[in-house]
Amino acid sequence: LAVLWCNNNALTTLDVKNHSALTTLKCGNNTSLTTLKCHNCALMTLEVGGCTALKELYCNSNQLASLDLSDNAALWYLYCFGNALTTLDISNNTSLKTLSCYSNQLTALDVSKNTLLALLYCGDNQLTALDVSNNTALITLSCHSNRLTTLNVSKNTALKELLCRENLLVSLNVCNHSALETLDVRSNTSLTTLYCYENALTKLQVSGCTALRVLYCYKNALTTLDVSDCTSLTMLYCFGNALTTLNVSKNTALTELSCSSNALTALDVSKNTALKELYCYENRLTTLDVSNHSAL
Question: Which of 74, 181, 192, 212 has the highest CB neighbour number within 10 Å of its CB?
Fold first, then answer.
């Protein structure tokens, strides 16, 4: 099956997924259609105009270069990842709760009208900017592998997961997000400042952040912290977590280290001879050697 025209019917659901030869699907004006599954095909043309009741659209993993959703105001879930989309207009889709449009060729994405969005996956595109200030219901934001230089999530206090690795971020502030559990900023090679304190982080990934100088991740729930790639780090404030180990041997530029109120049983700062301030109280240390730290 390469071509399917089924428009102007009374379909309520349509499932044509995994038809690897299907290139054209026209199902417009099915006004009762609520669910359309046409993923994992070879679609280059998809028409859903007039499908005013459509709530779920799975058209991912095709070859779509364009997608017109202007008639689909009832849409809740949109999965269009893995296509060749260069633009995506969802301004009429104000009921959207989930948008998964990663692995396309998008250079811009306007989600300002989609205030009900809880899950947004827009990674692996070519985005240079992303405004999520109106999306206060966001729980997961995955915008990795783009060209973002800034990201403001100050209004997104319901976030539990923020994945923004492999961008061009210079600074990032995600403080006081009490629900935030996962933060992935890996391979942001321009990132110099990261403020992510007073959250609920159990996972923080900063590998590949070679320019990072300031990391404030205190008062979270971290049990591990790998800063071995952060060789430019001068200020590390990680107090008030649940760290049992902390390796700062690669962070020779450190001038300030605050790791108090953790569960550290050992702390080796022999390589950190530039230290001027060291706070390590309320741990389980039995020894501490600072004999070579003339600046302390």
Answer: 212
